[in-house]
Amino acid sequence: PTVVSVSNLARILDMRQKRMMQLMKNWGMEEVKPDLLVLSSEDASLVAVELGFNPVIDDEAAFDIYPDAPPAEPSTLPHRPPVVTIMGHVDHGKTTLLDTLRSTSVAKGEAGGITQHIGAFSVPVGTASENSAIRTITFLDTPGHAAFTAMRARGARVTDIIVCVVAADDGVMPQTREVLNLAKTEENVELVIAINKVDKPQANVEKVKNALLAEGVQLESLGGDVPSVEVSGLTGKGLDDLIETISTIAEVADLRADQTSKAEGYVLESKVDKGRGPIATVLVTSGTLQPGAAIVAGTVWCRVRQMMDDKGQFVKKASPGMPVTVSGWKELPEAGDEVLQAIKGEDDAKRAVANRKREIEKRKILKDVEKINEVRKAER
Ligand code: GTP
Ligand code: MG
């Protein structure tokens, strides 16, 4: 049953709690669990009616700001870029690898200029794959990695491919095992092994491969189905191979997303910017995000003011697979929060946020009630 605290109700109705409790007593409502100071939604609405309000009981608080739209036939949708998360043990070269990928891609692209670090970036796939459905690959950077964990905790999925970086001079280490286990437990996530730092004299690729085998990773080069590439983030050696491998996996996976629907995505990271206020890097997973859209993430809403891509350029559209920093948030959203565009604009967004806040409050109260009941049981 839905419950509301007396103090919350008083706040909503703009009334002193003491005064409200006095009135409730006058109306003969003292039997309403006064010791817990919570009311059922029915009793709360009675109080509101007595006070001249016209309450609507909405137990199924509109968490879902979408009507039930029929999902589009997947095979008719346009392709989207694969989303790749780089993971691995400390110091095995994740950041260096990403930096090299990024700088070579910036050098290749016409945009030029200074790349902005926004925790995620797109790499265009080279001309070798001209006929490929895969035009770009989205890489999630280390902060994206943190968001990955947060999103996992919420049962959300953005990553299509995990690249597990293993330094050839250090081999399989504790965090390497964590990544391998993660890849095993994640459904619909492909694993690629990048044996890194092969430029080092101490590099021992065979040893790494054997260690991986001992962990149960069946490498392609040893007759299994897990692709591996030998790379050096420092020199750039093998990075073409890595891109090629990712493209191939993505093509087989036939990744598609609706581009015409309302935008959906995830917050990868967020911070307060001196000039722009709260900003968040959003990875769009479906639909198209545009300035002016009203979006909701967790209990925060945003009227999208500006969007900036990974090259620091203002953009007017963000399609699936595209990471953008979004300004216009009323408060700071959390990494890992799902982003949904409100159908009817600002009012919808505000209502969704209010409903969500109410829902959270409700759950807190329910937890308190549970606790009190437990204590009572124990006392008996
Ligand atoms: P954390 O973020 O701390 O987990 O580390 P990381 O995995 O991002 O490693 P990072 O890229 O910071 O590299 C760690 C060290 O290894 C740095 O000193 C790099 O210069 C060096 N390094 C990274 N990649 C290579 C490589 O391919 N070859 C060589 N020789 N050194 C590398
Ligand atoms: Mg790093």
UniProtKB/TrEMBL annotation:
Family classification = Belongs to the TRAFAC class translation factor GTPase superfamily. Classic translation factor GTPase family. IF-2 subfamily.
Q: Molecular function terms in GO for this entry?
A: GTP binding; GTPase activity; translation initiation factor activity
Which residue numbers delimit the Tr-type G domain? 79-256
User: Any idea which UniProt keywords this protein has?
Assistant: Cytoplasm, GTP-binding, Initiation factor, Mitochondrion, Nucleotide-binding, Protein biosynthesis, Transit peptide
Which species is this UniProt entry from?
Answer: Dacryopinax primogenitus (strain DJM 731)
Q: Is-annotated flag, keyword Repeat?
A: no
Question: Gene Ontology terms, cellular component aspect?
Answer: mitochondrion
The residue range of the signal peptide is: none
Q: Which residues of the full protein are shown?
A: 12 to 391 of 625
**Name of the molecule in the record:** Translation initiation factor IF-2, mitochondrial
The function of this protein is: One of the essential components for the initiation of protein synthesis. Protects formylmethionyl-tRNA from spontaneous hydrolysis and promotes its binding to the 30S ribosomal subunits. Also involved in the hydrolysis of GTP during the formation of the 70S ribosomal complex.
Localization, UniProt: Cytoplasm; Mitochondrion
